[in-house]
Design a protein that fits this description.
This is Secreted protein. The protein is mainly β. It has helices spanning 2-23, 36-40; strands spanning 45-53, 59-71, 74-85, 92-102, 111-118, 122-130, 132-143, 156-160. Helix content is 15%, strand content 43%.
């Protein structure tokens, strides 16, 4: 949905911009202006994700992600959505957690980003993190009074800079691809 809104706004802007060209003239000596933001805008990504479920289908989560690049390996990732508690027993809750790989100079360990719990209702969540190369989500259940998550579904990738489907140009400013392990 978010992609369609952006594409619609982009199309409207293009129509207005090209229509305005016919009304104005630019001297041939005028130099075009560029910036790093424009060059990296091709790497930006946004999409909806989910619904993803716990192993027993008693918790679910869905949401959206927006990735904005300022420069190569320099981005801001915003994630939002809702976690749903579908287990109507009073002692269990829905739980969603996120983990990431960061652009951190070769340390390819997963970082725990955020976890959110919803007990008996749907709970919205939102977070922002910088310099993310890969982000995954997992939906579980958790006891109302704490403890470790259980009955977790599979980890689902919602952004991966090394996968061309997400729009990031790994070839930009890199000579090889063998220095990163697939996860």
């Amino acid at each position: 949905m978010r992609v369609r809104q952006i594409l619609g706004a982009t199309a409207a802007t293009a129509i207005l911009a090209f229509g305005a060209i016919g009304l104005t003239s630019t001297p041939a000596s005028a130099a075009p202006t560029t910036s790093a933001k424009i060059a990296s805008a091709d790497w930006d990504y946004d999409d909806d994700w989910g619904s993803y479920w716990s192993w027993n289908h008693k918790a679910k989560a869905k949401g959206w992600i927006e990735v904005e690049y300022d420069h190569h390996e320099d981005n801001k990732v915003e994630v939002g959505g809702k976690v749903y508690d579908k287990d109507h027993r009073n002692s269990k809750c829905g739980y969603v957690k996120f983990r990431s790989y960061d652009w951190d100079g070769g340390k390819w360990d997963w970082d725990h980003v955020w976890g959110y719990k919803a007990c008996g209702w749907d709970k919205p969540f939102h977070f922002t993190k910088h310099d993310i190369a890969k982000l995954q989500v997992q939906v579980c259940q958790i006891n109302k009074w704490g403890g470790a998550p259980f009955k977790c579904g599979q980890w689902k990738t919602i952004y991966d800079a090394w996968d061309h489907d997400y729009g990031y140009d790994w070839d930009h400013d890199h000579d090889d691809h063998d220095d990163h392990d697939e996860v």
